Amino acid sequence: MSLWRVLALLMLLPATQTTNAGVKVRITQKGLDYGRQIAIATLLEKLKTIKVPDLSGAEKVSPIGKVQYSLTGIQITALGLPKSAVGLVPGTGISLSIGQAYIRMHGNWKVQYLHIVKDSGSFDLFVNGLAITSGIGLKSDETGRPEVNIASCADSISSASVKFRGGASWLYSLFSSYIDKAIRDTLQKQVNAVLKGIIILKVRWKRKEPPFSAKTFSLPPLASNMLYIGVSEFTANSAGFTYNNAGALSLFITDDMIPPSSPIRLNTRTFGAFIPQIAKRYPRMMMKLLVKMVKAPSITFQQNITTIQASGTITAYAIQPNTTLSPLFILNVGVSFSSLVYVTGVKLSGTVSLNKMDMTLGQSYVGPFQVKSLDKIVLMVLKMVVIPKVNARLQQGFPLPSIGKMNLVNTRVQVLKDFMLIGTDVQFTG
Questions:
Q1: Which domain, by its residues, includes 238?
Q2: pTM for the whole thing?
Q3: Does residue 15 sit within a domain?
Q4: Would you call 427 helix, strand, or coil by DSSP?
């Protein structure tokens, strides 16, 4: 897991700096503290994987002369990050600092001097005062999408000492300063590589601009959760706009989609009871209905109330024996729904229920008839087929900004004027 994923939702903050953001995010101190704990645990695991390469060289040591040495099999035996802090850098991003860290290592040494004298033993390396500072810069590109860059990545070691055991350990003490520097330089490179390797963010934020703008809204000053996400009417309506443009808000309804227990069937006999000319022109034929939105639905948020207004058409067809579809009529339908919204995992889900329906005749291919006579049939189709289909899709959910392996816990959803507020804690699973 990336060190910074726990704080990655802050990548949405640049969007909140504009007056009319579609989504606003606030991370609280509780969220920052949790992020620091996850970051330190991640960094500890990564630092344990450091592999210090074998070191070898030659130094002139008085009075012996040239001494060839090698340090091999260096392994970490202890590691600690006792002091750490995380915070926001105004106008820049996030910073993480670690102080008073230490690393203990163990390895083997070999030496050869005077061309024929060889010796070996073990050593312990003590690195103290390891300081790490790192940060990411957060901004948005020209389209408003979040971008991340590594703003800083540095580490320093205040002291590193080597204790040699066995053989001519006294000899190593004569040039331990050379070895100390070689190990310190190598270790700093390894730590720096670990830091740069884990400052990786994967935030997916896809959008297509709708032909309407966002209203101004502000998040209330709450702090009981780690994270607060404000989803405006603009964002909800943008989803409807996108689905409608993709043709996803249309549905063919056939008789096999009507519950078997229903006395009303999609055939010319049933509809002929209300519109006799249908049964006369198309006797004993099955029918098909096409429900289609004529424009994107409109979603409004008021205190504790979510309302969806939708305008569409219902086109009825008779299915000829050769499967040709013969149009019968087109109804203009306006419906109002109430919606219950909730969060499951990292998705925003919901259900809808019908408030009211208005219906007028758009076009008839079978002559004039009273539209009101079809009210019960259309209501039945809406309640038995259309609404369950809509709810099945809504219950699948629409993804919130995605960040690695993340669970939202203790989630609360409030519907306020012009926006929906999601308060949640964050829990990472690996």
A1: 227-428
A2: 0.59
A3: no
A4: strand
